[in-house]
Write a structure and sequence with these properties.
The termini are far apart. Strand 1 and strand 2 form a beta hairpin. The protein is an alpha/beta fold and 327 residues long. The strands form five sheets. A five-stranded mixed β-sheet has the order 4-3-5-14-6, with helices on both faces. It has three domains: 83 residues, Winged helix-like DNA-binding domain superfamily/Winged helix DNA-binding domain (Arc Repressor Mutant, subunit A), CATH 1.10.10; 114 residues, Periplasmic binding protein-like II (D-Maltodextrin-Binding Protein, domain 2, 3-Layer(aba) Sandwich); 98 residues, 3-Layer(aba) Sandwich (D-Maltodextrin-Binding Protein, domain 2), CATH 3.40.190.290. The chain contains 13 helices and 14 strands.
Length: 327
C-alpha cells in the first residue's frame, strides 16, 4: 500500500492486519506502534457497531462483517489510487481533454496546428466548436471552452485589461477569390475597389468577423457588391466559388491551398488581420491548455520560417473539377 495516498488510517490498518494476520507485524510494516494501531481499529469497530476482527485465536482473523467491509475498503482504496494515477496522467499530458473554439476561417488556417498537437499528445481529446468570434470571447469568460483561435487584430487596451489575453500567430492578407468559371480566373493584375463593387459575392453571414471586415471596406470605398449568398459555412462558399461564377473574400493562404481557386488582390488593400490564440488571463488553466498555447507559439515561429508553398495543403487527388496547377 502506498502511504502517500490519502486514505483513512483506520482502513489502512485494517487492510494490513488482514494481510499479515497479526497486529505486531502490521504495526511494523506500517511503522506505527501497536497501541496506536489497536486504538484505530477499536474506534472503527465502534463507529460501525460491529466487530471486524476475531482476536480469539493465535492469529487475527476477519469476522464475516470484517470480510465484507474489507472487500469494500479495498475497492475504495483501488478507486482512490486510480484517481491519483489519473491526476498524474493529466499532469503529464498522457490523458485529458481540450475544448477549442474557433471560427470558420481559423479552422481552415490552423488545422496543421491541431494535427501537430494530436501527434504530440494523442491521449488528449480535442473538442472543437465552430462559432462566431464574439461568441468565443464569451465562451472563454464563462468557462465553456479552454482556448480560442480568432481572426482579428490584437485586443484593444480596453479588452486587454479584461479577463482575456492574446497571442498573435501570424498576420494574413485578404483577397478576392474566384473559381475557374469566373471571367477573372487567372488574372494577375490588381483590381480596383470600383471593379470589386461590380462583383456578385458569396459571403459568410454578419455573425462573423470576416463579413464585418468586408462590409466596412465597402462602406469606406463607397462600393456595393451584390451579396448573392450569405451562409455560416466556409466549405459551402468554397464549393460554390470552385464550380460557378461567384466570387468571395478570403485570406490569401486559404485561396492558395484550395484547388480551382484564384487570388486577386484589390487596390486599396483589404485590411490585414491577425490569427490569434485567446485564453483567459486568470483562473485555472489545464495542462492541456498550457501545452496548446505553448505549441501554438512554437508553431507560429516555425510557420514564419516556411515559404508560402510549404504552408499549402496538398490538393485533393479526387477533385477532378478543379485545376490543381500551382499558381
Amino acid at each position: 500500500m502506498d502511504r502517500r495516498d490519502i486514505f483513512p488510517r483506520s482502513l489502512q490498518y485494517l487492510i494490513a492486519i488482514a494481510e499479515y494476520g497479526s497486529y505486531t507485524r502490521a504495526a511494523e510494516a506500517l511503522y506505527v506502534s501497536q497501541p496506536t494501531l489497536s486504538q484505530q481499529i477499536k474506534q472503527l469497530e465502534e463507529s460501525l457497531g460491529s466487530p471486524l476482527l476475531d482476536r480469539s485465536g493465535r492469529t487475527v482473523r476477519l469476522t464475516d462483517a470484517g470480510e465484507i467491509y474489507l472487500r469494500h475498503a479495498r475497492r475504495a482504496w483501488g478507486e482512490l489510487h486510480a484517481g491519483t494515477r489519473a491526476i498524474h496522467d493529466v499532469q503529464d499530458l498522457s490523458r485529458g481533454s481540450l475544448r477549442l473554439g474557433w471560427t470558420p476561417i481559423t479552422d481552415y488556417m490552423t488545422c496543421p496546428l491541431l494535427e501537430k498537437f494530436n501527434h504530440l499528445y494523442p491521449g488528449i481529446t480535442l473538442n472543437t466548436l465552430e462559432m462566431p468570434q464574439d461568441d468565443i470571447k464569451v465562451a472563454l469568460t464563462e468557462g465553456l471552452i479552454d482556448v480560442g483561435i480568432a481572426f482579428s487584430k490584437p485586443l484593444s487596451p480596453e479588452d486587454d485589461s479584461s479577463e482575456i489575453e492574446t497571442c498573435v500567430l501570424f498576420n494574413e492578407a485578404l483577397c478576392l477569390a474566384v473559381g475557374n468559371e469566373h471571367p477573372r480566373a487567372g488574372q494577375r493584375k490588381r483590381m480596383s475597389a470600383q471593379e470589386f463593387g461590380q462583383e456578385s459575392l458569396a459571403l459568410l453571414n454578419t455573425e462573423f468577423a470576416l463579413r464585418h471586415i468586408v462590409d466596412q471596406y465597402c462602406v469606406e470605398q463607397a462600393v456595393s457588391p451584390r451579396n448573392v449568398i450569405n451562409t455560416n459555412s466556409l466549405s459551402v462558399i468554397i464549393e460554390l466559388i470552385q464550380v460557378g461564377p461567384l466570387a468571395t473574400v478570403l485570406p490569401i493562404s486559404i485561396v492558395r491551398s484550395q484547388c480551382g481557386l484564384h487570388p486577386i488582390m484589390i487596390t486599396p488593400d483589404l485590411p490585414h488581420k491577425a490569427v490569434t490564440v485567446i485564453s483567459r488571463k486568470d483562473g485555472y488553466k489545464s495542462q492541456a491548455c498550457i501545452a496548446f498555447t505553448k505549441l501554438a507559439s512554437e508553431w507560429s515561429n516555425q510557420r514564419h520560417k516556411e515559404t508560402p508553398t510549404q504552408r499549402l495543403r496538398p490538393c485533393p487527388l479526387s477533385d477532378t473539377r478543379a485545376n490543381c496547377s500551382k499558381k
